[in-house]
Amino acid sequence: MRRGNNLRNRLETIRKERGIKQEELAAAVEVSRQTIGSLENGRYNPSIILAFKIARYFGMSIEEIFIYEEE
């Protein structure tokens, strides 16, 4: 069952592959650890600014992390 949005992400996978804790990522992009957890669980979609900050932190494009799927 879909959660009502078409945005999914690879944030948790990328973060874990690089050995980065939620707390470290949160501090780097200036949000709470809870926000990172909510992003990873699909409960929250990032603002465009936060998406850019996360992408820059990992040296990736937004589209490599956040995947928008049209119905």
Describe the structure.
This protein is mostly helical and 71 residues long. It has a single domain, classed as lambda repressor-like DNA-binding domains (434 Repressor (Amino-terminal Domain)), CATH 1.10.260. 54% of the residues lie in helices and 8% in strands. The protein has helices at residues 11-17, 22-29, 33-40, 48-58, 62-65; strands spanning 7-9, 66-68. A two-stranded antiparallel sheet has the order 1-2. Helix 2 packs across helix 3. The longest helix is centred in the last third of the chain and has 11 residues, at 48-58. The two termini are 14 Å apart. Keywords: DNA-binding. It comes from Anaerosporobacter mobilis DSM 15930. InterPro entries: Cro/C1-type_HTH, Lambda_DNA-bd_dom_sf. This is Putative transcriptional regulator. Residues 11-65 form the HTH cro/C1-type domain.
Shape: globular
Q: How many structurally independent domains?
A: 1
Question: Which regions contain 5 or more consecutive residues with pLDDT less than 50?
Answer: none
Helical proportion, percent range: 40-55%
CATH architecture: Orthogonal Bundle
CATH class: Mainly Alpha
N to C succession of SSEs: EHHHHHE
Determine the number of helices (DSSP H or I, runs of at least 4 residues).
Answer: 5
Please name the CATH topology.
Answer: 434 Repressor (Amino-terminal Domain)
**CATH level 4 superfamily:** lambda repressor-like DNA-binding domains
Q: Got a strand count?
A: 2
The first-to-last residue Cα distance is 14 Å
Strand order of the largest sheet: 1-2
Please state the average pLDDT score. 92
Main β-sheet, in a few words? 2 strands, antiparallel
Estimated radius of gyration = 12 Å
* Strand residue percentage: 5-15%
Classification by helices and strands: mainly alpha
Keywords: DNA-binding
Domain HTH cro/C1-type: 11-65
GO molecular function: DNA binding
Protein name: Putative transcriptional regulator
